[in-house]
Design brief:
The chain is an alpha+beta fold. It is built from 2 helices and 9 strands. It folds into 2 domains: about 70 residues, 2,3-Dihydroxybiphenyl 1,2-Dioxygenase, domain 1; about 55 residues, 2,3-Dihydroxybiphenyl 1,2-Dioxygenase, domain 1 (Roll), CATH 3.10.180.10. Strands 1, 2, 3, 4, 5, 6, 7, 8 and 9 form a 9-stranded mixed β-sheet that branches. The longest helix is centred in the first third of the chain and has 12 residues.
Length: about 130
């Protein structure tokens, strides 16, 4: 496995039904809207996964879409980088000139996640997977 691979992408949406229909029709992705407790997040299944929801084919990733109107939602797409230790990654991000945008959050069944800004102002996320 690569060191700190990109494991997920995220993009904002303005209309949940429209974005789900677009990616289902255009690319055949399996779009699944999560409950209101997850802020209307929509998962985008682009690749087959195993019982731990990890992709079976190396080099492929799945993603998700979030409501652009939510407080603190980014208006631009981003990627999620998997790390072994989120606390250590946060320190490395800061030491390299990055800025942590919010406190780390637990994503139920997935792991610990944090959003940050890189040295160029890009929004990126880091994830310490629960099973990884």
């Amino acid at each position: 496995m690569s060191k700190n691979p990109v494991v997920h992408f995220e993009m904002p949406y303005k209309d949940s039904k429209r974005v789900a229909e677009f990616y289902e029709k255009a690319f055949g992705w399996q779009m699944t809207k999560l409950g209101d407790d997850m802020g209307g997040y929509i998962t985008a299944g682009t690749a087959e996964t195993d019982e731990n929801r990890m992709v079976k084919t190396p080099g492929t990733i799945n993603g998700g879409f979030y409501d652009q109107s939510l407080k603190d939602a980014s208006p631009v797409p981003s990627v999620v980088i998997q790390v072994a230790d989120l606390k250590a990654a946060i320190e490395a991000i800061k030491a390299a000139g990055g800025k942590i945008l919010r406190e780390p959050q637990e994503i139920p069944g997935i792991g610990l996640w944090v959003s940050f800004e890189d040295s160029e102002g890009n929004r990126v996320s880091a994830l310490q997977a629960k099973n990884g």
